[in-house]
Amino acid sequence: MSGYACLVVEDSPMMRQLIVFALSRIKNMTVTEADDGIVGLKKLAQGRFDLIITDINMPIMDGLKLVRKIRSDERHKDVPVIVITTEGSKEDRERAMALGASAYITKPIQAPQVIETVKELLKI
Amino acid sequence: MSSRKQNRPSDQPADLRAERETFVRNFLHKGVELTEDLIRENQGLEQQVRHLQDDNTRLRAQLASNDAIRELLVTIESLERERKSLLSRSDELERAFQQHEQRHSEVENELNDLASLYVASFQLSGTLSVGRVVRHMCELLEQLVGAQSFVIYIISPEGKRGLPVGSRGQGDVSTLPSVSVEDGVIGDVCLTGVPRITEPQQPRKDNEPLAVLPLVFDTEVVGIIAINKLLPHKRGWARVDEELFKLLSAHGATALIAANMYATEGGPRAALRDVIGRMEREKLRQLAEAEAEVGGDV
């Protein structure tokens, strides 16, 4: 069965739920959730993902470290990564992009923005 | 013999002979000329006939061509009408498409707003931890409304002060001062239970919040949210913000009270003890109230 698998790493349950809601509107999309970078890496090791969406500001392991880890791993270095940033944090955004993030979404999260960015990256 | 000799032409006088020869020559010459004229005339006539035949052919062709042109003109006219009709249809479709696009965009926005409301409601009522309720309220204000700086206060039991329990963009909540809930905009909102929301561009008094929202349980104001600043990219209030404020006002207060009461209980099952007894007592009380009401009317 052809489909897409997405890993959402976000510590805020509210934001996570909003992202999952947006992703649920993309056909054949399955979503795995993680509430911080460490859990995200564990879930990444257990499955195959076509896309990763991660928040930048998270406790324990933040999004920047997660992006660095993902890009240094041969298995996931080509998986598109979307980072979620706040409008004001231009530096974080630039750092994430320099580390290899594929795109960014700014808070507050808007479902159409998430859907559009995901479709663009997955070419669907 | 001599008379026969005299009858011979040679015997005629030379001038007569010459005259006759001249006449005959002239006659022949005229005949030749006439014949030649006739031949030329004939050739001319033949040429005219050919010209006329050519003209005839040309005119016939032209006539046929004119008919074809007339038919073509009729076809062009009909095609022109069809083109106009298609253009008109195309314009209609374009308008319908634009309306559809607009409607689609509106539906998308509505869906997005509903999702925000659903998530906010789900998160607020999905926990019985005071800390999490406050965190969800803060996230709701920050992520869904787009507030950059705000404080959530609960009203002290005697109803005079607002005590800060959560904030963003104003430093640590434990260092924030309490506020009076008896005067100013906050006092008005506490008294009336009606939110006070001003547009960011609208002039305000110093230190006056951009928006003051009541946290209401039943009809009593139990808390206040003071929003002081919006995120830079948020230029004004969105339509969904009003709905989010209503949700925060009602669900936020209930969630906070429920979480605070639950904190003294020994877990979810313990918190449900005597539910049936309470239901019974509540029913009896309602019946008594109804009877008293009927008795009063009589």
Distance between the termini of chain B: 190 Å
Fraction of helical residues of chain B: 55-70%
What is the H/E order of chain A? EHEHEHEHEH
CATH topology of chain A: Rossmann fold
Biggest sheet record of chain A: 5 strands, parallel
Provide mean pLDDT of chain A, rounded: 90
Q: Helicity level of chain A, as a percent range?
A: 40-55%
Number of domains of chain A: 1
Give the total of beta strands of chain A: 5
* Rg over CA atoms of chain B: 58 Å
Number of helical elements of chain B = 7
CATH superfamily of the largest domain in chain B: GAF domain
Would you summarize the structure shown here?
In chain A, 43% of the residues lie in helices and 23% in strands. With 124 residues, chain A is an alpha/beta fold. Chain A has a single domain, classed as Response regulator (Rossmann fold), CATH 3.40.50.2300.
Structural account:
The complex is a heterodimer of chains A (124) and B (298). With 124 residues, chain A is α/β, with parallel strands linked by helices. Chain A has a single domain (4-104), classed as Rossmann fold. Chain A is built from five helices and five strands. Chain A has a five-stranded parallel β-sheet with strand order 2-1-3-4-5, sandwiched between helices. In chain A, helix 2 runs parallel beside helix 3. Chain A starts with a strand and ends with a helix. The model of chain A has no long low-confidence stretch (mean pLDDT 90). In chain B, helix 2 runs antiparallel to helix 3 and helix 3 (130-145) runs antiparallel to helix 5 (239-262). Chain B has two domains: 1-95; 126-265, 2-Layer Sandwich (Beta-Lactamase). The termini of chain B are far apart. A six-stranded antiparallel β-sheet of chain B has the order 3-2-1-6-5-4, with helices on both faces. Chain B is α+β, with helices and mostly antiparallel strands and 298 residues long. Helices cover 65% and strands 13% of the residues of chain B. Chains A and B meet through helix 1 of A and helix 2 and helix 3 of B.
